[in-house]
Amino acid sequence: MSLLPRTAEEFSSADYWDRFFRKRGEKAFEWYGDYNSLCGILHKYIKPRDKVLVVGCGNSELSEQLYDVGYRQLTNIDISETVVSHMNQRNTERRPDLTFQQVDATETGFENGSFQAALDKGTLDAMASEEEGALAGRMVAEVGRVLAVGGRYVCITLAQEHVIKLAVEHFAQGWAVRIHCLSGQQTEDSDSSFALPVFVLVCTKFRQAPPFAVLELCEGEDGAPSRLASVPDLLSAVKERQAYNLMLHKLRGGTDASLTPSLTLCHAATGRPRYTLTVQDSLPSAKLPRSNQFAIFIVPQGRESDWLYGSAEGRAQLASSAKFKRLVIVAMHRDQEYEDMQAVQSELSPMVMELAPPGMQANQQVPFLSVGGDLGWREVVGRGVSALTGEYSVEDVRGEDGHLYRRLVFMNNSQLVQSESRLQATATASANKKKNRKKSKASVSVAPAFKGAKTRSVDRGFLCCTHHEVMVAGLAMLGTEGFSNKDHPVSMLLVGLGGGGLPQFVHDFVPCAQIEVVELDSVVLEVAQTWFGFQTDERLKVILGDGLEHITMLESKGGHLFDVVMFDVDSKDTTLGMSCPPSTFVETLILKKIYNLLTPRGLFMLNLVCRDSSLRKSVLERVQAVFPCVFSRGIEGEVNEVLLCCRSAGDGQKPHTVPHTLQQTANDLQRTLCNKTQTAPCVPQIDITAMLNDLKVI
């Protein structure tokens, strides 16, 4: 299977090209390659018997070299009288039939259809910057006029964005357009800070325009053509190749643990993403075995969003543990089939070797690492589209602990698991599994023994997210009477439903709890009910709408309505250093409204995910200005922290330590949850005391 690279690194055209043209000076043609580097592609499209128009020949030796290998019908034109005179004098004796003429390439005077090929080495690039591209436009139109049907315009170009766009848009109307990407041309005198792939644009003239655009991209001279659907798609593919070449150049220049470039390898035929590769170098101070230069780590399917693989900190830790100079971390994409580890290794080997660190011996063995030699397992069980958040996927995966988990992932941020629940076999599936246990033993690399989404149900007694466990444990701060008194049950408002695991847990295990959930997206509610076992009743209700508007409406009516208000909602604004909650949710006015909604014993719980230290400080200051007592519980290995904000400070004094009575109420809450097991559908699996152990006063 052929793979095409698509790097995530932006190719900054203006800045990069400005620096390039300043550096190259008068030595322009060296960047386009000489005859030895171009002969393969030229012989493929231009035959020795063809009448060839060489456009803007300059003083390049290319025509002379083509003449020497049998191309005798070359007509060389250039606008410079000096160049033409010099080239004619240089070739009078050795190449008497090789002529050079002073001709304007935009108005040649040659007859229509008089050439079988037109060869352009850098002329389009030079002319495209003149007259805002109008000069180059007239030139390609003239080339099209003098070429015969079936004739080819072969243009060697560095494919600056405005240059290639002009040419492709012109020839896409009625011509076949194919672009070859060749390796970057570097010589001993070339500036090492530039890594330019050379492109060969081949446009073939049709007698009659086809009913659809023929747009293709090829890797190297002989790569199989990949068909592109539109001109923007082709131009984007060219830009990706330029960015990929630039990334390779940086990687070959040395190792740098602070740079973690990534690229996506796409299926050449379909263009769909198949692998994402992230390069992670070890620190210069790391003590590594001399032979450990380079390795490839295959992330198990469905695990790419795990902290170890999906975060910069996790990947750095993985590389440190692997003890290789450079580690390439490979994630497999959903909706793709992978046979086994050997097949994946064979498919990746040609491409990943381009990412090897400098100085590695060519014949050195490169190990492929994985978790137990397993590709992992993933099954997409549902998908759909939300008007608010776009496409989503519901998928079952096998976790590191061997259990199956169901995840909700929005495709606009596919590295983030929106919601997660642990699965268990349904009663029917469990019975069938016991019957067949003696018949076969399933391998860990294949699908689970209980196959099909219908044979799996959500374990409602297990909370996958630690911050959800902390929020449940935080109920202990209400006091024993607060969560166990059936005459005065806990009243809770939760903004943000997700898969519904948190409110469902409280409903199932906290006696008589009254829960109101506000969710903005009706599709999220549908997903929670369809795939995550979420069930509403008179004690658990969902209101579809804006959480802040709902809070404002309730507060305007007056009265202390809730013992607990929880915020567990993510932000769609990726420009801020805070991904949870949206910044508007922690403005002082909203915090005061929440304070007013709480009962005297009330508690505000906030899942805070903030990487910006100054922004975090600002949020904490605002929270502390409203709530007299604030506790924080960090989540190990994650950025998350849960803030537990009390409406009352108890004796009126802000505590400096965690209340000594909390241990006892934690034990009481644990017993209360377990006592509810008799009527609940499953057993609660949570350690309340452990969740409160690292609580700190802010």
UniProtKB/TrEMBL annotation:
Looking at the record, the residues that make up the Methyltransferase domain are 52-151
Q: Tell me any Pfam family this protein matches.
A: Spermine_synth
Q: Which domain of life is it from?
A: Eukaryota
Q: Which reaction does it catalyse?
A: L-lysyl-[protein] + S-adenosyl-L-methionine = N(6)-methyl-L-lysyl-[protein] + S-adenosyl-L-homocysteine + H(+); N-terminal glycyl-L-lysyl-L-glutamyl-[protein] + 3 S-adenosyl-L-methionine = N-terminal N,N,N-trimethyl-glycyl-L-lysyl-L-glutamyl-[protein] + 3 S-adenosyl-L-homocysteine + 3 H(+); N(6)-methyl-L-lysyl-[protein] + S-adenosyl-L-methionine = N(6),N(6)-dimethyl-L-lysyl-[protein] + S-adenosyl-L-homocysteine + H(+)
Q: Which family does it belong to?
A: Belongs to the methyltransferase superfamily.
Question: Could you state a single Gene Ontology molecular function term?
Answer: methyltransferase activity
* Record's protein name: eEF1A lysine and N-terminal methyltransferase
**Tell me, which GO biological process terms does this entry list?**
methylation
Cite the InterPro entries for this sequence.
Lys/N-term_MeTrsfase_sf, Methyltransf_25, SAM-dependent_MTases_sf
The record's keywords, sorted A to Z, are: Methyltransferase, Multifunctional enzyme, Transferase
KW Mitochondrion (keyword) present: no
Species source reads Triplophysa tibetana
**Do you know which PANTHER family this protein is assigned to?**
EEF1A LYSINE AND N-TERMINAL METHYLTRANSFERASE, SAM-DEPENDENT METHYLTRANSFERASE SUPERFAMILY PROTEIN
